[in-house]
Amino acid sequence: MGNLNLDDVRGFFRELVDPNFYDFYWDYQSEDECDRDKLVRVFRKMVNLCLTLNHQADKVAKALKYENALELIGEVSSHYKDEGAALDAVRRFSNDVKHKSKLDQNFTARERSDMDRSPDGPDLPEWYFLDGSGVKVAVCNASVDAYLFWGKYFAGERALLKPKT
């Protein structure tokens, strides 16, 4: 019999966030045509990833003695602006999915870029919401960036994020 250590922030990342990321990312970046089936499948996986990434922020906030994830994200943003923005986008999207929707959300397909696994191939799905200034926030990209932030944090590469004193 095994044990999943989901109370531990590293265990939660290892057992839930990491597999959810790979499940999402490989389907998102696949060579499959961006049709309705792929849109629905990737959206479902993205929602699952965002919910676990958001809960990851909640767990780390508690472990580092922050009042909540929003306060933690503010601290992340003060040291790592783009990664803090990604964490906040995931938080906002997750909360919009869990509660009565308030964000102006939409989806589209986008051309691949050099930042994608393969720059060639069919278009990729992308979900957006508009922030308070009317700027589009790409949820798929934010999910990837938030995941990479936590990976760097646990690898010791985001050492400026300290427990609240």
Q: How would you summarize this macromolecular structure in one to three sentences?
A:
With 165 residues, the chain is mainly alpha-helical. It is 56% helix and 10% strand.
Count every beta strand, where a strand is a DSSP E run of 2 or more residues.
3
Helical percent range?
A: 55-70%
Oligomeric state of shown chains? single chain
As laid out across the biggest beta sheet, the strand order is 1-2-3
Specify the biggest β-sheet: 3 strands, antiparallel
SS strand fraction: 5-15%
Integer average pLDDT: 92
Using only CA atoms, what is the Rg? 16 Å
Q: Give the helix tally.
A: 5
**Roughly how many Å apart are the termini?**
39 Å
**Structural class of the helix and strand makeup?**
mainly alpha
Q: What form results from the Cα inertia axes?
A: globular
What is the N-to-C order of secondary-structure elements (H for helix, E for strand)?
HHHHEEEH
Poorly predicted spans: none
Number of domains: 1
What does this structure look like?
This protein is mostly helical and 165 residues long. The protein has one domain. Helix content is 56%, strand content 10%. The protein has five helices and three strands, in the order ααααβββα. The protein has helices spanning 9-28, 36-63, 69-79, 81-98, 139-154; strands at 105-110, 124-130, 136-138. A three-stranded antiparallel β-sheet has the order 1-2-3. Strand 2 and strand 3 form a beta hairpin. Helix 1 (9-28) runs antiparallel to helix 2 and helix 2 (36-63) packs parallel to helix 5. The chain is globular. The protein starts with 8 loop residues before the first helix and ends in an 11-residue tail after the last helix.
